[in-house]
Amino acid sequence: MNWPNRVVVTGCGTISPVGNDTATYWSALTEGRSGIAQPTLVSPELLFREVVAEVKDYNPTDYFEERQLSPLDRVTQFAVIAAREALNASGLTIDDALSERTAAIVGTGIGGASTMDESYKRLYADKATRVYPLTVPKLMPNAPASQVSMHLGLRGPSFGVVSACASATHAIGLAYQMVRAGMVDAAITGGTEACITLGTLKGWEALRVMATDTCRPFSKDRKGLVIGEGAAMVVLETLESAKARGAEIIAEVVGFGMSADAKDLTNPDVGGMARAMKACLADAGANPGDVAYINAHGTGTMANDSAETEALKATFGELAPKIPVSSTKSMVGHALGAAGALEFVALVNAVRDGIAPPTMNYAGLDPACDLDYVPNEARRMPIELGLSNSFAFGGLNAVLAARRFA
To answer: Which of 190, 211, 244 is the last residue of a domain?
Structure first.
């Protein structure tokens, strides 16, 4: 189909366990720096798995006035911070006309986890009879999208996307489709998560998929995932608009694919993963041989990593061993609803700069994972076209494709 618009990325914003802006985040990824450590937001003594990936050196009053903070859960603060950076980096001016033609679409897996945890503690532990009056607006999963629209003055479509670990990729993909189809002229989109709370971590511990030491995707001796947090946002606009105002173009978004496993709530399905990648390639008008790099979902669990490896083989066939594949979760953990956005920012920077970030903590070959995972050191290489994979609980799969813009 011939769509009205080509869509480009003109701004990125990031707050992450390895850097509180995009430049620092991307530099840390290429240098292999890890944000995984013992928690400070939750007492380690209360946990069986004592590693997480927290946003470091974060003080809300560095970003917001005191009066602004009362309706903002940590998850929403992160979204607004990343959105501000993305918009400033893009150089886009939101006037009255553009305000009505700009979307705010933000994914999150959980929403206001801190507010929920604090409210339950107040009711059940402290025996209070009331909670904070703005509890509901703070914990709603749509709060990040709503607050981004309000803080940036965006009056176009605004909504949240909630699809577990695929939330951000779904959000960016929907925004891409809307700009491409001419429904809006621009979109500020991505994902956010702030789920390092006692209740949430205990829930993840119960699933028995958490690592005891660190995250080592695709590696032998991998022990599971590490929960992370943060946010990443991108500005999408039409190529025509970006060229007209002389904007710096980071990369072009060229494809989006989705699928559902319709099988198991937690066990990944090779067929569902492969269908999403193939749908993305078809949407991009690309062949398997065109793909130069893949930012994998790569959680570090036994089941996910082996299934994703098989799905890559099912999609790319004999080409699969020749395509560099890396998981940046090895450095920033698994930020659930924000993961796809953090990884999409990594992808578009990889495409622009010609650098495949590494899979850190790689300790050697697992026979079930036998592809090129860019182990422990970034790789300089031309990347004309790359993919970003997100495969979520519930069997929800989403894949984005980005092309180098020259």
So the answer is: 244
Q: Do the Cβ atoms of 283 and 387 come closer than 8 Å? A: no
One-letter amino acid at 253 equals V
Does one domain contain both 239 and 260?
no
Give the number of domains in the chain.
2
Asked if 54 and 74 touch (Cβ cutoff 8 Å), the reply is: no
The neighbouring-strand residues paired with 251 are 9
Q: What is the pTM of this model?
A: 0.98
Classify the phi-psi angles of 251: left when phi > 0, otherwise alpha if psi is within -120 to 50, otherwise beta.
beta
Give the tokens for residue 368.
């079930």
**Residues carrying an active site annotation:** 165, 297, 334
Give the C-alpha separation, 228 to 156, whole Å. 31
pLDDT in tens, 158-181: 999 999 999 999 999 999 999 999
pLDDT tens for 277-303 read: 999 999 999 999 999 999 999 999 999
Q: Spell out the residues 6+ positions from residue 104 whose beta carbon is closer than 8 angstroms to its own.
A: 83, 145, 146, 148, 149, 152, 154, 156, 157, 158, 187, 188, 189
Tell me the residue type at 4.
P
Closest CA to 238 of 12, 4, 5, 401: 5
